[in-house]
Amino acid sequence: xxxxxxxxxxxxxxxxxxxxxxxxxxxxxxxxxxxxxxxxxxxxxxxxxxxxxxxxxxxxxxxxxxxxxxxxxxxxxxxxxxxxxxxxxxxxxxxxxxxxxxxxxxxxxxxxxxxxxxxxxxxxxxxxxxxxxxxxxxxxxxxxxxxxxxxxxxxxxxxxxxxxxxxxxxxxxxxxxxxxxxxxxxxxxxxxxxxxxxxxxxxxxxxxxxxxxxxxxxxxxxxxxxxxxxx
Amino acid sequence: xxxxxxxxxxxxxxxxxxxxxxxxxxxxxxxxxxxxxxxxxxxxxxxxxxxxxxxxxxxxxxxxxxxxxxxxxxxxxxxxxxxxxxxxxxxxxxxxxxxxxxxxxxxxxxxxxxxxxxxxxxxxxxxxxxxxxxxxxxxxxxxxxxxxxxxxxxxxxxxxxxxxxxxxxxxxxxxxxxxxxxxxxxxxxxxxxxxxxxxxxxxxxxxxxxxxxxxxxxxxxxxxxxxxxxxxxxxxxxxxxxxxxxxxxxxxxxxxxxxxxxxxxxxxxxxxxxxxxxxxxxxxxxxxxxxxxxxxxxxxxxxxxxxxxxxxxxxxxxxxxxxxxxxxxxxxxxxxxxxxxxxxxxxxxxxxxxxxxxxxxxxxxxxxxxxxxxxxxxxxxxxxxxxxxxxxxxxxxxxxxxxxxx
Lengths: 231, 406
Ligand SMILES: [Zn+2]
Hints:
heterodimer; A: alpha/beta; Rossmann fold; 6-stranded mixed beta sheet; 4-stranded antiparallel beta sheet; 12 strands; B: alpha/beta; UDP-N-acetylmuramoyl-L-alanine:D-glutamate ligase; Protein-Tyrosine Phosphatase, Chain A; 9-stranded mixed beta sheet; about 15% strand; binds zinc ion
């Protein structure tokens, strides 16, 4: 069985090195000799609904709205979830999955509504290091956030992490991101998987089952350095 | 107080700052001038032909080359050492009051102010791309600032703008007096949506052309650089020779030749003058650390890293990367993942700087063998007696540029 990763719309949602997350997942699978493939899906490609893991990155307002239009066609992402696939969404990608998000010119854009969150415009942009204690059994999470929206849970939801420093979802929630059985979302870019090898493996193993251990000390050193600097 | 007296006082303070080694003195001089006479830039621009040069990458090099080409026939003041904010412009204009021309590099966000103050004769718009997103603005926002500012230009002003860059085109296209320049650059990493209407921009597969259903499209260029041949609207042409290596430098040299031609310098004379420039404010300067002879290069955002890596690939086998993430570098290192480091494959790569682990992680995933060391001295010990390129991010570059010998 080949594990298939789909990188959704990298030209539109790839402002913060998002392709790095895809490359890192691929590298970690390759190092373990897990057969896999990466499909880069551009704006004019048709989106497969039967892959294993879909990544959606961050981007600017116009790109976010253009991406929403493409992903909203024919309930595509709902079909993806119905087929049992998982989604990892960062920043603008996270916001698109919710019920609404803000755009320039005081516009409110209706999102895909796949998760019970809504994003509103924040008074100040959230920019800087983001450190959070994960709700999953993995090490502390470290990333860099840069977003103008704040995201509120409309339902009882599990966050990805409890914020130690930085803003995360904001709105006084003190949490970052979200975890559902099939979706993991976060405001950490940086990219998140370079700094958080355990997060990368945890997301892979949610779909693939337990993975053989992997020695790649540079990622652990980077993780520890970033955590200690952010504290 | 008379402007000449103010400049005299400001120069004195600038000299003190330089002698006491607090700085180069330029910023001090400029700040005092503006403090004592807030409209000094406007006053110092009167009766002068002013050229403004701006863009995300290549400002300093292009300004320096325009200065070199213009000085063939004219006396020119310039801020070609890169002090491109308010004080830097004031200081540059105060240098030689009898020089009838000024070639000024301007920070992208200072352009609206600079246009109002200087009544420029020509505005040279290079490119717009992402740059330190944690502290600077998104590309579209900068393009909008330019668009608004260009509407305030004096009527006779000429714009020389890059036709290959959709953001530059969108900012300049309302102006009646635009000369479009193309160096055949392909694609643009930030222009996936139309600057005009926001929908997905339609790029030709080779990246040479773009258009949108709203009518926005790549304009036909009057000045075209093909290989090293520059050709103008009347068929005039010249072989461009750049003393600075790389495709971007060649394209900036061509723009400098075009600009100087509007002030009566022949294409051939400009080309000869420009070919003599081999290093600009430390860029491509020589630097010895331990026994290693380094060639210093600056890289500060994804577009400039791509360009520098391509240029360096034609250089020596050994290369040292120095990456920091201080305020001026941008504190966010996510851009590392937007740069393809494969031009480093087959080279001997050493990495240092505050964020060497970020770089090491990036290179590891790119399958590029490399060594991580604590600082440049340790790198020089590892490299030994060889020639090597040293590619540095902003703060490391400016620290090292002070030791450049030529
Ligand atoms: Zn359009």
